[in-house]
Amino acid sequence: MEDDVGFEGAQQALKQVGLRNAVVKVYGDASLEDLIDAILRQTVYRKSVVVVGRADLANREEVEGLRRRAADLGIGAVAVSAYGPDSLRLFVEKVYGQLYLITPRRMVW
Asked: Which of 25, 35, 89, 93 is the most exposed place for a label (fewest CB within 10 A)?
């Protein structure tokens, strides 16, 4: 990393690109532009599901707000609770659906 940029400059640039929690290793000399190019070029979008845990204790508007925000990003969301009789089934269905997996025909709950 060039001396004029330093750790703080690289950290700030990575935050601007959307990286907030990552381990970044730089081998050899690299400019800030090289770092950002490498990060942007190798971005991998993984399929994901937002799981709202302990949904029985959450405010209904907050849960729905999280679902809407996730949907705006193209991410599925499911609220789960140990007290909800269908929570586990809904969770499994959402995960299988997001990952485009074949759901087993018969699931015993």
From this structure: 25
Q: Are residues 59 and 86 in the same domain?
A: yes
Query: How many domains are there within the chain?
Result: 2
State which residues form the domain around 62: 49-98
Alpha helices in the chain (DSSP H): 6-16, 32-41, 60-72, 87-98
Task: Quick: pLDDT tens for 38-71.
Answer: 877 766 667 788 899 998 898 999 999 999 999 9
Q: Please, which residues bridge with residue 78 across strands?
A: 51
Q: Are residues 32 and 58 in the same domain?
A: no
Mean pLDDT of 17-36: 82
Cα separation, 47 vs 56, in Å, equals: 26
Of residues 95, 15, 82, the one with CA closest to residue 55: 82
SS3 call for 22: coil
State whether 62 and 90 are in the same domain: yes
pTM: 0.49
